[in-house]
Structure formats: C-alpha cells, structure tokens
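User: Hey, quick favor. My workstation is busy. Could you predict this chain's structure for me?
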Amino acid sequence: MSHFAVTATDGEARAGLLRTPHGEVPTPAFMPVGTKATVKTLDPDELRSLGAGILLGNTYHLHFRPGDELIAELGGLHRFMGWQGPILTDSGGYQVFSLRDTILAVDDEGVTFRSVYDGAAARFTPETAAAIQANLGSDVAMCLDICPPADSTLAEHEEAVRLTTAWATRQRAAPRAAGQLLFGIAQGGIDRGLRTRSIEDLATLGFDGHALGGLAVGESRDEMFDAVAWSAPLLPADRPRYFMGIGDPEGILGVIERGIDMFDCVLPTRTARTGSALTWEGRLNLRNARFARDPRPLDVGCSCPACDRFSRAYVRHLVNQDEILGLRLLTLHNLRFVLDLTAGARAAIERGELASYAADALARLAATETTWTS
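Assistant: No problem, here it is.
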C-alpha cells in the first residue's frame, strides 16, 4: 500500500494523506518544531488538542543531548517524549551548515565540525545520519545534505548539489528503523539548472518523499516563491513534498498554493517566547502598555485555551512578570493560529476555493500592516 495519496487538487495545490507507522497525517500539514524532544512549554496532549498531527525533532541536538543511543535504550523517541503520533527528524545537516564557524572539514565522505555543546570535534556522514535517526525511531527520516546560504557562489551551490546527491545515494542504502520513511532533499539555491538537476537525480533514487532545501535562507521572498513555483511541479507527483522552514501566514499559503504538502518553522513558538501573539489583527506585542486594561481575548473567535479563558490584560501581566504560564498561553495560541490556517487551506482545496481563501486571509492581515516574518 502506498504511504501517500493525493485526495484533492486545486490548481497546483494538493490535499493528501501521509501514512506512517504512528498514524495518518492529513496534508497540507504544519509540523510544530520539537527540537530537543519537546515543543517548548507544551505537553504532548496539548499539542494533539491543538490539531497537531506530526512533530519535528532535531537529529543534531538529540544526538548530543541526551544521546540517540540512550533514547533507543528507553524505547525510542515516541516513548521518550510521550508523543504517540508521527515524528519527522531532520538529518542535522542544516544545523551543521548554518553554524558555519564550527565546520572543520567537508569532504566526499561527510562533514567534521565542533559540537555547540562542548566544542569537541564530531563527524556526520550519511551513514551516521541514518544510524542516529534509526535509533530515534522517527516515522520520517531526512537525508544528510549541504545547505549553503543564498549568497553562495554558483560553484558552491554546484558542489552542494553534487555532495547532497552522493550522500543521499549512500543514505538510501543504509539501514533504518522498521517502517521508517526516508525523504531526499533537493538543493541548488534559486538556480533553475542546478535545482532541476538535483531534483531529477534524487527522483531516480526512489525516496518516499522529497524536500526543497536551501530556500528561505537569505534570498528575497519573491525569489523564494518563484523557485517553489517552478520546482515543486518537478518533484514526483505521487510523493509528499516538503518545504523546510516556513511558518508565517503569507509563506504558508504561498507554498501550499504552489504545491507543497508539508512545512515546519519555529516562528509560532519563538514568537510566543518574545511575548507576542499571532492574530488576525497582526502580531501583538503583549508587553505593550496598550494591552494593560484590554479585556478581550488574544484573538476574537479563537477557541484555544488562552483565548477561551484569559484576557490580553492578564497575558500581558504574565509576560511582563516573566511567568511561565504567559509563555505557555502564547505558545498554545500561536500554534493553534498556524494549525487552523493550514487546516482551513486544506478544506479550501477540497472545495476548490483555495485562491479565495488565501486572498481573504492575506487581505485581513494586510489591513494591519504587520511584518510577520522573523
């Protein structure tokens, strides 16, 4: 039985169903980021009640703390963190290459770098990325790749494509956990020729899904959307398509309209920890004095635990007094906002009304003149 099925289309946009060992995930799907085996401040049951269907864990950080072998000894990542739904783990490649000052050497076999935890030299290869994710027991594992910044030279992007494909070929052959799906990651920046080559080469390897990596890493928003528009249709139509690292409303709707099925971002949770709420009035900084006597919920019409019971004035008080409950309430609300936006897009695709849904949503947000991206 196929692990992915497209159930409806609307233009390039798709609604689908991803089947994993720990359950089915309706797509489009936003994945809350649980970097260190937790979505900060929240309990797994709360995440499920918000509508989260799949979480993301971080191979780099879990390998170093507490250790993937320890997690395996304790029954795997699902049991360790008390989340019985699907989990996707990244390969650690993005963390290694975004921390460029820690890299010691890159060669055909892998990458050597200094751990951010103790400075000790460490090495990732496609085989170690596979072994770590097998120990974690995630439902979806990602291939080790090279993710260069947007301002890299064409030669640097070309080398990233070459090594990413070579490493993906090796990881495709490496052992993995029972039932674990494996996604390849296309690189190439915004260069049409390089990214097309990367997609075509990876497609021949028969991965269970495909990601567009190396976007939203410094190029303009228009350049990013343009690259997704022409590259997403090149990905295998019968496999899930994953955009790595987007979580603002414009970005979410934009990649869905262009054919993306899955995406993740720290924006909702990180924004909460700065004391801000994502709402249909824009981004609200609850530290602002104008909310001191505001009796309204964070977002009128929202049914999250924060909006259902508490006022903006109360949340502002908690945030300004550094009370943990304030961060929890904002995290609950921000994730509900993004998850509801995504679920609404899925329903709109099924009705054949995504364009009007997206236009209405963006018009509401544009009226606030709020900057969403982080």
